[in-house]
Automatic annotation (TrEMBL):
Residues 26-117 form the Lysozyme inhibitor LprI-like N-terminal domain. This is DUF1311 domain-containing protein. The lineage of its organism: Bacteria, Pseudomonadati, Pseudomonadota, Alphaproteobacteria, Hyphomicrobiales. InterPro entries: LprI-like_N (IPR009739). Gene3D superfamilies: 1.20.1270.180. Pfam families: LprI (PF07007). Keywords: Signal. Residues 1-22 form the signal peptide. The keyword Signal applies.
Length: 136
């Protein structure tokens, strides 16, 4: 009986966030499903962020100073995002709800940053507050 228990426990630990795709996140009822759905939302936000970041970086060809500033800004933003979510979820740390809350927080802040980076890709040519040159 013990080997069956070990196999069952391994199966639980090997569930990836991609398994959440099989979940109906609108009707999830248990904490494990909710955690997986929140992890999936974070993965989607992170994909959007990385896509926008790479598009900006590709537009900064020959703009080494701007590229360095972009990298420094992104590193600082990641530090802020992670610290903000650790602060906001401190009371839940160690609980079963913590992974969901942490993923939701990270996803929300990451999505906001992705929105900002995406805005940089479509700002007006005469907008001096836009650091990204037009692609044309």
């Amino acid at each position: 009986m013990r080997p069956i228990f070990v196999v069952a426990m391994l199966a639980l630990f090997c569930v990836s966030p991609r398994t959440a795709a099989a979940q109906d996140c609108e009707t999830s009822e248990n904490q494990m499903e909710l955690n997986l759905c929140a992890a999936e939302a974070l993965e989607e936000a992170d994909t959007r962020l990385n896509t926008a970041y790479r598009a900006i970086e590709s537009r900064l060809t020959g703009e080494d100073d701007l590229k360095q500033r972009l990298r420094a800004t992104q590193r600082a933003w990641i530090t802020f995002r992670d610290a903000e979510c650790r602060f906001l979820n401190a009371n839940a740390e160690g609980g079963t709800i913590f992974p969901m809350l942490e993923s939701q927080c990270l996803a929300d802040i990451t999505s906001e940053r992705a929105d900002k980076l995406e805005d940089y890709l479509v700002c007006d040519e005469i907008d001096m507050s836009c650091p990204v040159p037009d692609a044309q």
